[in-house]
Write a structure and sequence with these properties.
Elements (H helix, E strand, L loop, with lengths): L1 E13 L1 H7 L12 E5 L7 E6 L2 E6 L1 E6 L2 H7 L1 H4 L3 E5 L2 H5 L4 E3 L7 E7 L8 H17 L3
Parallel strand pairs: 2-5, 2-6
Antiparallel strand pairs: 1-6, 1-7, 1-8, 3-4
Length: 145
């Protein structure tokens, strides 16, 4: 059985330093002219996807840095994001603090849903039910964008 725990959205962002140097892209097509930090787990082919005119469209990007996890980029914050544009999840605090600027807000990027998966059972153990309920409450305020 799979129970939905939360959802989150990747958002395009960069540091204010990068935007001051390179400018902000106005459309997804403008990404070709920017250096990007590419997470290979969501875009192994250097293609980022955005909703454009109601359709999902792939846009080629030029990686300056490739990572296989967003955590190092978020941990580095300004030094990494000063190197280029990046798609990151759950960046509300960084945006609110001015460390990152959200870009292309009119174009939806990647959405992810987190599920808890467990074996089917006629009677769900109380410990498991309590744990699943805790996960839902815990992530409700932290990840949803």
């Amino acid at each position: 059985i799979a129970r939905r725990i939360t959802s989150y959205r990747y958002v395009l962002c960069a540091s204010p330093d990068y935007i001051a140097r390179a400018g902000a892209p106005a459309t997804p097509d403008a990404l070709a002219g920017h250096a990007c930090i590419v997470n290979s787990t969501i875009s192994p082919t250097n293609q980022w996807q955005f909703m454009v005119d109601g359709e999902r469209r792939s846009v080629g990007v030029r990686p300056r840095i490739r990572v296989n996890c967003a955590r190092p980029v978020r941990a580095l914050r300004s030094p990494a994001t000063a190197s280029g544009l990046c798609l990151l999840p759950t960046v509300r605090e960084d945006i609110a603090a001015g460390r990152l600027l959200r870009l292309l807000e009119a174009y939806e990027a990647y959405d992810r849903i987190v599920y808890a998966v467990y074996p089917h059972s006629r009677h769900l153990p109380a410990k498991l039910r309590t744990f699943l309920d805790h996960l839902v409450v815990h992530f409700r305020s932290g990840l949803e964008q």
